[in-house]
Structure formats: C-alpha cells, structure tokens
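Reminder to self: tokens first, then the designed residues, so the page reads top to bottom the way the pipeline ran.
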C-alpha cells in the first residue's frame, strides 16, 4: 500500500508530505517527500492560536478563532496533497495519515489538541484519512507519539542484518 503522511510541526513553517510504501506492519520504503510553506500571515495566526489554545480544558474545545484556523489548516493540507500528487503522477494512495497542527500538549493531564478536520480532509480528497492519532495514543496510556516506535521497528526490520552484528537491536 502507498500511504501519504502529513505533518505540520511545532515550527509552524509549513506542511511536510511524505510518500511511503508499506505492508502496514514491518516493511516501509520511503518514496518521495516535499514541503509546502506557510505564508507569514498564517504563521502569525497559528502563533496567536497557540496562545488562545492555552485556555482549552477539553479536547474538542475551539475557543476564539481556533475553528477558523482548523478549517484553514485542513484546506491547506488538501492543497498540499493535490500539489504533491500533481508532482508525483500515477501514485495510487491507499490512506493518508493526518497529524494536524498541535496547539496544546499536556501529557501529564492526558490532554492533547491538534487542529485539523480529518473527516473534512477525507471528503475533500476522496482518500481515506487516519487522524487523531496522538489523542488516541494518550487514551491508551501513551505520550502522544504513536507512529515513531512503529516506524522505527519497520525501518530496523529492513536493515542489513550485518549492521547489527555484535549489537542489540
């Protein structure tokens, strides 16, 4: 299966798109990646949104203009996917992993908030979207980074066995 991963990290500078091929368990092969930058005015809106988000007490709260920012983030991700796919013609995408933009992360309180509407993204693009991964990880006792261990296991499985000779893996 070919999967797209979308990330807009704490730097708030843009959207990273990565295309991988995977069996969904152990094998992963990196194919292509690109970055789509945010304009300065949107970066300022995100920074202001971080301040607004400090008042959130429940995951689904969207005080102030956070609902508008969430819609804008989702639409920008859809535009990034379209642009990416136009540069990587012929890629059949089975699923998109949509991280969203983290605006609040308090693992000690079991609270994490990412802006981004996975249902809207799926509907807009016509491709299945997996989202709210961080919140789901925390519900199950994690710290909100569920993909890192799975990705590292898959990468390690594809390494030349001679690389680990004499070392624990």
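Designed residues (169 positions):
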């Amino acid at each position: 299966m070919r999967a797209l991963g979308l990330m807009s990290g704490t730097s708030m500078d843009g959207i990273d798109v990565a295309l991988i091929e995977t069996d969904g368990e152990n094998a992963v092969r990196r194919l292509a990646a690109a970055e789509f930058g945010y304009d300065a005015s949107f970066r300022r809106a995100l920074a202001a949104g971080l301040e607004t988000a400090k008042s959130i007490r429940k995951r689904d709260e969207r005080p102030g203009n956070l609902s508008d920012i969430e819609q804008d983030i989702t639409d920008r991700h859809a535009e990034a996917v379209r642009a990416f796919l136009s540069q990587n013609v012929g890629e059949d995408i089975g699923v998109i992993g949509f991280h969203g933009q983290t605006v609040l992360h308090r693992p000690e309180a079991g609270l994490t908030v990412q802006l981004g509407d996975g249902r809207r993204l799926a509907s807009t693009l016509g491709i299945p979207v997996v989202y709210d991964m961080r919140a789901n990880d925390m519900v199950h006792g994690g710290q909100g980074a569920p993909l890192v261990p799975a990705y590292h296991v898959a990468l390690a499985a594809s390494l030349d066995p001679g690389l680990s000779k004499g070392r624990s893996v």
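The first strand starts at residue 2 and ends at 8.
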